[in-house]
Design brief:
293 residues, 2 domains, five-stranded mixed beta sheet
Length: 293
């Protein structure tokens, strides 16, 4: 059965299982944004679901059902004692109970939802659900709005402008493009050619490919890029898209010459980090001190 055909609660349970698997494979600790990206990158069904958007009747702004289910899945794992996190802190980490789970025998119904169901059926059921919804809105409202606007703007770029944008970003990240590299566009899948200094005495030869893409980038595109990299004797490559990669594409990128894959979510994070053609705006949220008693 495909992810899209699952019942709503089963979608949430599959996301919760993916969260546990992601935390165990990534050292037991990750911030929510990185954890979200990881489970999207490693499950095609979840990835497609994460792109579903609805319009809020209250604010008339877009929202993603995935974000709500992701937060609610985290809440159930918290209640069942497998993870710990606090409101306002982006870091999620496994508890001792979560660390010792064997994912081969882990059963989401028995281990998590049979435990958390009693929590939801107490006198504060509605209050707690409202708190989770409010937390989701507070944590994601501004970031989601920025993400939507940025990715929409990138999707409208011409291929040449997207290539220019990609080079500007990688230049911020330490890659120096050569004149030869700027002349390689559309030549064997290579859009840029340059060097990255990795220590005081060694530089690495880098090639990039930029794909403004609809849908998912698959293994065919990655294998084609690998062939082009080998022709140019590159030490490693960078493949940039505004979309996302299939799990098979990510596996292909790990199988040969090192490739760094940058997808739409990575672009959002990196544009913020390097403040590439954006500027930060400061705002304020009320502390819990102001909550009514």
């Amino acid at each position: 059965m495909s992810f899209d055909d699952l019942r709503e609660i089963d979608k949430e349970k599959q996301i919760a299982t993916a969260i546990m698997d992601g935390l165990q494979k990534n050292g037991g600790r990750a911030d929510k944004a990185a954890l979200r990206e990881y489970i999207i990158d490693n499950d095609e069904g979840i990835a497609e679901y994460s792109e579903v958007k609805k319009i809020s009747k209250k604010t008339n702004s877009p929202w993603r059902p995935f974000d709500y289910k992701f937060n609610f899945a985290l809440k159930n794992l918290l209640v069942a004692g497998f993870v710990s996190y606090s409101r306002g802190n982006p870091v999620v980490q496994l508890t001792e109970k979560g660390i010792n789970v064997d994912m081969k025998t882990f059963e989401i119904d028995r281990d998590v939802y049979d435990v958390s169901i009693s929590y939801w059926h107490n006198n504060e059921k509605q209050k707690k659900k409202d708190e989770v919804e409010a937390e989701n809105t507070v944590e994601n409202e501004y970031l989601n709005d920025f993400r939507e606007k940025l990715l929409a703007a990138i999707s409208k770029m011409s291929p040449k402008k997207f290539e220019l944008f990609s080079r500007a970003l990688l230049n911020k990240m330490g890659i120096e493009f050569t004149e030869t590299g700027t002349q390689l566009s559309n030549d064997g899948g290579i859009d840029g050619y340059g060097y990255c200094r990795t220590d005081d005495f060694r530089t690495s030869r880098v090639v990039i490919q930029c794909k403004r893409w609809q849908g998912s980038v698959g293994s065919v595109e990655i294998n084609g890029f690998l062939g082009a990299m080998n022709r140019f004797q590159a030490d490693y490559g960078v493949f940039i898209t505004n979309s996302r990669y299939t799990p098979a594409a990510r596996e292909a990128a790990r199988a040969g010459t090192p490739i760094t894959l940058i997808d739409g979510d990575d672009l959002v994070r990196l544009v913020k980090k390097y403040e590439l053609y954006v500027f930060p705006v400061q705002t304020y949220e009320l502390d819990s001190f102001y909550d009514a008693e």
